[in-house]
Design a protein that fits this description.
There is one protein chain. The protein has 237 residues and is of the alpha/beta class. Helices cover 36% and strands 27% of the residues. It has a six-stranded mixed beta sheet, with helices on both faces. The chain has a four-stranded antiparallel beta sheet with strand order 2-1-4-5, covered by helices on one side. Strand 1 and strand 2 (23-34) form a beta hairpin. Helix 2 runs parallel beside helix 4 and helix 3 crosses helix 4. The radius of gyration is 18 Å and the shape is globular.
Length: 237
């Protein structure tokens, strides 16, 4: 594997709801993601994969273990880590272009330059011609690609995707995978994806970790995972 980009060591996490018993989401999880490597976290709903993704993104507190990005401890969100949430999180009152421009505006980039950068990534995810459309007028797959472009304009070195294919038709999944593959070729980012479908994850990932009830049960080549009885049993529930 190439030099590590993300290093996760002995990470645990417990949710403490306002009522009811605490829920153990992660238990002693350790893994690595290399430079320009695409890694998938695969497991059933509630297994802890999204929790781990959000901890890498800095959106959840780290109380057990450590997470390093480029050798530095994760202490909160940062522009080096772009994230695409499961339910898009687009601003409904902004157009496609305005959604993508949002982060660049916050950075104070000169207007003409930020429009140029935004258009580059809208072209990359094949949304040219939809710049002035509002999210309510888009399909689920198109909304997901807007969210992807919005993350990419910040020039992250790491891209985090949370269940990006859920609820999408197969042809839409294919388009999104094509966009992700172009990103790898053109930008050289490292990617960590949380995904429930092993076959879909295998089309994207160089390497795969299967998670069951907060623990890693498999690490290796995606093709090998498809022949692993424990992994397949876990994904079938």
């Amino acid at each position: 594997m190439s030099r590590e980009k993300i290093l996760i060591q002995q990470v645990g996490h417990t949710y403490t709801p306002p009522t009811g018993a605490p829920v153990r989401a992660l238990e002693n999880v350790s893994l690595e993601v290399g430079e320009n490597e695409f890694v998938a976290l695969v497991g059933p709903s509630g297994c802890g994969k999204s929790t781990l993704l959000y901890m890498v993104g800095g959106f959840l507190p780290l109380r057990e273990g450590r997470i390093l990005v480029d050798g530095r401890s994760v202490e909160g969100p940062g522009p080096d880590r772009g994230i695409v949430f499961q339910h898009f999180a687009l601003f409904p009152w902004k157009t496609v272009r305005q959604n993508v421009l949002y982060g660049l505006e916050k950075q104070g980039m000169e207007p003409a330059r930020r429009r140029e950068v935004a258009q580059r990534f809208l072209d990359m995810v094949k949304l040219s011609g939809f710049e002035d459309v509002y999210p309510s007028q888009l399909s689920g797959g198109m909304k997901q690609r807007v969210a992807l472009a919005r993350a990419l304009v910040m020039d992250p070195s790491i891209l985090l995707l949370d269940e990006p294919f859920e609820g999408l038709a197969p042809v839409v999944v294919n388009r999104f995978i094509e966009a992700v593959q172009r990103i790898k070729e053109e930008m050289g980012v490292s990617l960590l994806i949380a995904e429930s479908n092993l076959a879909t994850a295998s089309r994207v990932a160089d390497r795969l970790y299967a998670i069951d009830r907060g623990e890693i049960i498999f690490e290796g080549d995606p093709r090998t995972a498809q022949g692993n009885a424990e992994v397949m049993k876990t994904l079938r529930g």
